[in-house]
Design goal:
Organism: Ornithinimicrobium tianjinense
Shape: globular
Pfam families: FBP_C
Strand content: 25-35%
Number of strands: 5
Structural class: alpha+beta
InterPro entries: EF-G-binding_C (IPR032330)
Bound molecules: zinc ion
Strand order of the largest sheet: 1-2-3-4-5
Protein name: Elongation factor G-binding protein C-terminal treble-clef zinc-finger domain-containing protein
Radius of gyration: 15 Å
Length: 131
């Protein structure tokens, strides 16, 4: 993916207030191998129950706030990540919840999906086939 700046990331969040976007922890962008990523995902260093995903979508940068579902959100059984659909990396998949944007989100509306807990989807998609 194309490298992003901290300002692009903070402005990209569609389901967070400006204050929340300002308070979000941003990873060290200079250490990221952007060519190896399809999206950038990370756990918030200040709030471990919160994570963020940012990607290029329709010529814009879009970011979402996610939180783990339930206590830590760890699945007790194996599951397949909806984003990378990797059938080998099934033991570190969790349910994540995103508040909806706008009025629906302010009323408490959310949407959930199963995703790799460590946001390793890009690495999973690039792993050489195994036999
Ligand atoms: Zn995945």
């Amino acid at each position: 993916m194309q490298p992003l700046t901290e300002q692009q990331i903070r402005r990209s969040f569609v389901n967070a207030s400006k204050g929340e976007a300002t308070r979000a922890s941003i990873p060290d962008l200079d250490t990221i191998d952007w060519d190896a990523l399809d999206y950038l995902g990370w756990t918030d260093a200040k709030r471990p129950g919160l994570s963020h995903v940012v990607l290029h979508l329709d010529d814009a940068v879009r970011g979402i706030f996610l939180r783990a579902a339930g206590s830590g959100g760890q699945m007790s059984r194996q599951a397949i990540c909806v984003w990378c659909e990797d059938i080998k990396a099934t033991d570190n998949v969790r349910m994540v919840i995103a508040p909806l944007a706008g009025q629906a989100g302010r009323r408490g509306g959310t949407i959930g999906t199963l995703a790799c807990a460590d946001f390793a989807c890009s690495a999973n998609a690039r792993r050489a086939p195994t036999r």
